[in-house]
Amino acid sequence: MTTLLRAPLIALLAVCTLWFNAAFAQDYAREKRWLDEVKPGLVVGEAVMIKSGRTKNEFLGLYTQVPNAVATVVIVHGLGVHPDHGIIGVLRTKLADLGYNTLSIQMPVLAADAPQEEYTHLFPDAADRIARAVDFLKARGQTKLVLVSHSMGSRMADAYFGTREADNPFRAWVALGMSQTYRPVTGTYRFPMLDVYGENDLPAVRASAPQRLRQLDQTKGSREVEIGRADHFYAGQEQALVTTIDGFLRTQLK
Questions:
Q1: Crossing angle for the helix pair 152-162 and 123-138, to the nearest 10 degrees
Q2: Is the pLDDT confidence value at 9 over 90?
Q3: pLDDT for 199
Q4: Is the pTM above the cut of 0.85?
Q5: What residue ranges define each of the domains in the chain, with the CATH number in brackets?
């Protein structure tokens, strides 16, 4: 290739690289807007800031501590929302009412118009945030930990567990609205899992449910539950969901 042709090609590659990085960049300004929205109106729990290990940015956690807790639940939300949004806000407050400490954490987000599959580029940072949440809780003497995740948050949690099989700190995992099979293709993780989906859930969630169940059958204590009349966000079926999660955790944490 001649020098005259090489220079424009290098410039084009540089432009494409800049575009690619911008397209998949985390939207920290969006996180800041949610922090400013959520923190002043907080009724249950307290807002805490946790430092990321990868980017050194701080991210929001909503932390509720109760006396004589059954366990501590780390809660991971879905696509492009915040740690008090919708069913996540319900879970973090109702599980606290039932005797669990809860820490709902802000997961990395993209711009509001970003396609869903672009979120896979954020999985390493998502896994790091879950790990930093664990560090936050361990520093407070809490080691009886479980993870509850929803939708894209379940895919993020799956990415986290895929890198932590040797030193997983969680006693159990509740995955809500998982839209694909779990990462270990020849089995499942070596801890009890509860796979939950709604009767009227998204097509991808329902379609992959039989295959996810076959994976869960290989781990003692794991099971799959369909919540009747529930959609992807459990609208109108929040109490049924909370009761299902509580029953599973109390059985597994004896």
A1: 80
A2: no
A3: 98
A4: yes
A5: 26-252 (3.40.50.1820)
